[in-house]
Specification:
Blueprint lengths: L1 E6 L6 H11 L13 E11 L2 E10 L2 E7 L11 H21 L13 H10 L4 H12 L3 H17 L7 E8 L17 H4 L2 H21 L3 E9 L7 H14 L6 E7 L6 H9 L4 E4 L6 H6 L6 H14 L3 E8 L6 H13 L4 E6 L21 H16 L3 E6 L10 E5 L6 H7 L4 E5 L4 E5 L6 E5 L4 H6 L6 H9 L8
Parallel strand pairs: 1-2, 5-6, 5-13, 6-7, 7-8, 8-9, 9-10
Antiparallel strand pairs: 2-3, 3-4, 10-12, 11-12, 14-15
Helix pairs in contact: 3-5, 4-5, 7-8, 8-9, 9-11, 12-13
Bound molecules: iron/sulfur cluster (SF4).
């Protein structure tokens, strides 16, 4: 994408302008030499304190549209200096986008800001839900639907987190292997036979890390509240490997009263024996993810399982008696239609699953779908936007409420990912992690430990190597001393 920035203020960096562009142009690149018909130019100037002039021109091929904002603005609540530049630029950008594309963005010009975290921040400071909705709508140009969704989600989270203290934490265990690679996925996971041969060695190293992490949690005096085994596809492991992995977790951390989740993920990896191994080790929650129940769409997105395999896996899981089963769907998939999306939703509701997560297709650079060619997916995402709206209303009607929500860059239609739940079945791990509410220790390739300060104003991130080869050859775990030093900055009473 051709990008021209004339920023005469001291606010906002080039990266901010790029991320703003992605709201209307998901998946665009800003590298020199990258061929694209798309165009954006920005002009920004401060004429007096908090008085910003912004001019934005957006283009596609020969077509151009301009947006303009000038003058002062009084936000609903006091904001920092950056806000005034963001606001003027955002408003001019949205005006240009509406003129060029014929539609507005549901999340306004919000980028790089977690809407639910923001809503919770204001709730904690005594603002009413109505005031926060007005603030989102007026100051950030978020639609009433999305403002209300953010506040509703924040209110549920506030309740969920009431008894989560500053010493509470989560644990994430990563299995970055998948049976095959889906076209839309940019997740670093491994899906060929040569790499599958690494699994036994990977498990050994992972169990060593889990043991060290369990010891660290104990020495830091923290209390584990949620465990999530994710991927990739953890159910790629056979039942013996699952028994070993879960046995290792159970003997190294205190699982009493802990929310315990296992992502079965791909239906084609699910067997009765594996799910029995999962539940017999104390796991109460699993996820089985069809993304769609249309075989045609599954083929389009290179997801190598059938709808039948999903229904079979769901039947096994329902029969075994998990407390909570989640199914992920994706809105905006290529080849999907209003009819097939709605049918997918009816199918997962009909199975009685307690959690349904509706994602929106995100076009990542690494995903092979991005390179398939024009017209394969709808980058403007009208269908995705309509699908998430439909899902919200239909799920509400079926008794589900939104309990976590996040947005990603490069999402078609600028829509969001929302986790819905039946009453009392919320997944705590998702909220601790997505909202960066509590420390989450991570083990395994591609995972990231996040130590969160008691006031949640400081986070120390520690990433394990992305690739299993590197993970196996390096000893890069977070050390106890480093974790202790981080928390000691905030605690009067240090642990031993
Ligand atoms: S199963 Fe999930 S993690 Fe694995 S390739 Fe497909 S989308 Fe990516």
């Amino acid at each position: 994408m051709k990008l021209v920035i004339d920023n005469r203020t001291r606010y906002l960096n080039d990266y901010y302008f790029q991320t703003l562009c992605l709201l209307y142009f998901p998946g665009e690149k800003f590298k020199e030499g990258f061929e694209s018909d798309n165009y954006a130019s920005f002009f920004l100037e401060e004429t007096a304190e908090h008085c910003i002039t912004a001019r934005v021109v957006l283009g596609m091929g020969e077509r151009r549209a301009e947006g303009y904002f000038e003058g002062g603005y009084t936000p609903s609540i006091p904001m920092n200096d950056d806000f005034y530049a963001m606001n003027a630029l955002g408003k001019a950008f949205l005006e240009a986008g509406r003129r060029l594309f014929g539609f507005g963005l549901p999340w306004g010009y919000i980028t790089g800001l977690r809407p639910v975290k923001r809503a919770k921040y204001y709730l904690d400071r005594g603002y009413s839900p109505e005031e926060i909705i007005t603030l989102f709508e007026r100051d950030y140009e978020v639609t009433n639907e999305k403002s209300t969704l953010s506040v509703e989600t924040a209110l549920i989270q506030q309740k969920m987190l009431e008894d989560i203290g500053e010493n509470d934490c989560g644990l994430y265990v990563s299995i970055p292997f998948c049976p095959t690679r889906c076209d839309y996925c940019s997740f670093v996971s491994y899906s060929n036979q040569r790499l599958f041969s690494l699994i036994p060695e990977y498990l050994e190293k992972l169990m060593k890390d889990i043991a060290e992490t369990g010891e660290m949690i104990r020495r830091l005096g923290m209390r584990l509240r949620a465990i999530y085994i994710g991927g990739g596809t953890p159910s790629i492991l056979d039942e013996h490997q699952i028994n070993r992995l879960l046995g290792c977790i159970n003997s190294n951390v205190d699982i009493s009263g802990v929310e315990y989740s296992f992502e079965a993920g791909r239906p084609d990896t699910v067997t009765r024996e594996k799910l029995l191994a999962v539940i017999n080790n104390g796991v109460k929650r699993i996820s089985i993810n069809p993304q769609t129940t249309s075989d045609l769409v599954l083929r389009q997105i290179g997801r190598k399982h059938s709808a039948k395999q999903f229904f079979e896996a769901a039947e096994i899981a329902n029969g075994i008696g998990f407390d909570c089963i989640n199914a992920d769907l994706i809105a905006g998939l290529p080849g999907d239609t209003e009819l097939s999306f709605r049918q997918s939703l009816e199918d997962v509701i009909g199975l009685g699953f307690s959690n349904i997560t509706v994602h929106t297709l995100s076009i990542k650079n690494a995903a092979s779908m991005r390179f398939i060619g024009d017209g394969f997916y709808d980058p403007q995402g009208e269908f995705a936007r309509e699908s998430v709206e439909y899902a919200r209303n239909r799920l509400k009607g079926a008794g589900y409420s939104p309990y976590y929500l996040y947005r990603q860059k490069n999402t078609v239609g600028n829509a969001e990912n929302t986790g819905y739940t039946l009453p009392g079945k919320e997944n705590l791990y998702n909220v601790l992690m997505m909202e960066e509410h509590s420390t989450v220790f991570a083990c395994g390739a591609g995972s990231i430990t996040k130590l969160v300060s008691p006031k949640r104003d400081d986070i120390l991130r520690h990433a394990f190597p992305k690739y299993p080869f590197e993970y196996l050859s390096q000893d890069k775990g977070l050390g106890y001393d480093e974790a202790k030093a981080f928390f000691a900055k905030f605690r009067k009473d240090e642990t031993n």
